[in-house]
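ERR on first pass: missing label on line 2. Operator R.T. fixed the label and resubmitted. Corrected input:
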Amino acid sequence: MGVKGVRGGQLKVLSRDQILEVHYATLDVLQHTGVVVHSKEALKVLKEAGADIDYKKERAWIPPHLVEEAIRKTSHGFRLCGRNPKKYCKFEGNRVYFGTAGGPPNVLDPNGNRRRATTKDFEDLVRLTDALENIDIAGAGITGMVDEIDLPETVRNARNFLRRLRNTDKPGGLGAGRGKAQAIDSIKLGCVVTGDLEKLRGNPMGWCHVNPVSPLMLSKELIESAIVYARHGLPIHFGSEVLGSATGPATLAGILVQMNAENLSGIVIAQFAAKPQHRPPILYGCISGILDQRTVVPALGSPEAGLINVASAQIAKYYGMASRGSGGYTESKIPDAQAGYESMMTLMMTAMAGTNFIYASGGLEPGVLSISYEKYVLDNDMIGMIRRIMDGICVTDETLAVDIIDKVGPGGHYLTQKHTIKFITKEYYFPTTFDRNNYERWVKSDSKDIREAARNRARKILEEHQPEPMDKDIEEDLQRMIRQIEKREIRLKRSSNKNG
Amino acid sequence: MLAMKMKEKEILTRLSECIVKLDIEGIKRACQDALAIGVPPVEAITEGMAKGMNIVGEKYEAGEYFLSELIMAGEVMKEGMKILEPHLKATEIKKLGKVVLATVKGDIHDIGKNIVATLLDAAGFKVIDLGVDVPAEKFLEALRKEKPDILAMSALVTTTMPQMKDVIKQLEKVGQRREVKVIVGGAPLTEGYAEIIGADAYAPDALTGVNICKKWISRGKGEKTL
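pass 2 clean. output:
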């Protein structure tokens, strides 16, 4: 039994014909404008597949039949597993799973102070998501922790992988990092947990994350990491980050075309680099939005970003691929009313589109430059409500309740019917933090401010919650491997100092 | 003797657990078993079922139990009382206190009032429920006839709230206001309004109302013994 994925797909913003128009326009761009790929290895893959290549300009023009072949080679989806292989998410069809934001260098801590994130924040935030009942995928991949900022990225990534595993058995956590060496490290780390490569392939714990550089470029480090993952048959996420009116056209349809071209160019490389017996599953991602030209920041908590995310999920489904979207975004600096409105709008739209993996709950600020303990807890309630909405209305003889209505009759009440108790727990969602008290009780309560209530819950979880302990042997093996990576990095640094 | 005590303790725990688990069939069996092994019925009520009700009340306040479960626990207790009551001595039947309650004139909403009635009943009060759409005259009549300790009024519609004021005014007119404590409740009411119309207390929810009534009665009894 995996994690229950609520079903989306209720919301559509493009018709089938409009999806086709975006698709054809994308093929046009890939064939006639082409993309820049800063990797000889990737260009070679494209050349061998039949694309038109200019090695000097690092540019590739990809004909439509290659793009459509790569789409056909891509499977319908895949599983994402945690260290507990029974806890997995099935990224396919209209199943929707919710994850939290990661990456930011700052936190809004439980005392309300915005400061640089530390490794302790990383551990605490993962443990918090482990306890939050509506979060499927434990995020908090702070990468720039202030106490480890001087360490090589590959060491930080390896340490974070173990840190995450210690604090949660929920899915997610493995990332390929940048460049071949890190990608290989991550595969080895994953194999330690699952047992071997075959098992990791069947129960992937993460993916290689590729952000194309808009407009229409792929960086050497990321696409070469992707090729490593492709050749091992492991999942790759292409998440284009077009900013409408700046790194992409201003129009939403134009943003979709460019985003699609960027993602598909990577998918072509991945599928033609792969061995036929082990094709990499693909996560078709959207991190696109618009640039707010008044403040010059990316606006991902905007209605336009909401629309782009819904369309992106529709396009992924049209291609028969797993999808990733960005929801729960806000440009607000604190968990205030603006944060509530923007987060709910973008998350609910993305969820109702049937996006398989939705990223970024719990974050704040343009570009998600901080994550907030309070917002993790508040967003958990928001996700609970969205899940409830997506579960919809169940219509059966039992839920139509004709017998019960007859039994109670005019003037009676339903409070003490068994039917009532059975369906309260089945059909009603009760938020854990949002306050539904009447005015008098609210006046008397200790936490009148919802932020305070959220802080209290976060503190309580952090005081009490202990994740399922991880296997000691696996933990020791991982520690050993991390030490090897650290030693290797020290040697590399010494030799580069000598040579330099 | 010790074995007897153990058995008695066991049955009291069972009585409490049946209330917490809302187990109607279980409470019937537990009450019969209690009588069979000679547990004094008063003890079965106060040390068994009432303790269960307290746990349910706490769980409800903590948000762990739903309103439905709170009331259902009251009904389970009522079932137990049906079995134990015939075995109580006449001197033991003395209720905690007597409450006359009703929804005021012009208002036919009775769920809130019924919840309060069930919970008062489960707490050991003698409850006289006058029903809904009850005019002031009827309240006065019940007061003369029943001589209750407490008068409880409910209103859900804002337009019927002034009826409460009317009842209290009439009580003052006939010089009976000091004979009873008056408690009011219902969604549109507020503490401030209760004060303005001269009620003794306002209950924002059923459980708070029952607790206020309990306090009044125990305090009242305390004063009498002084």
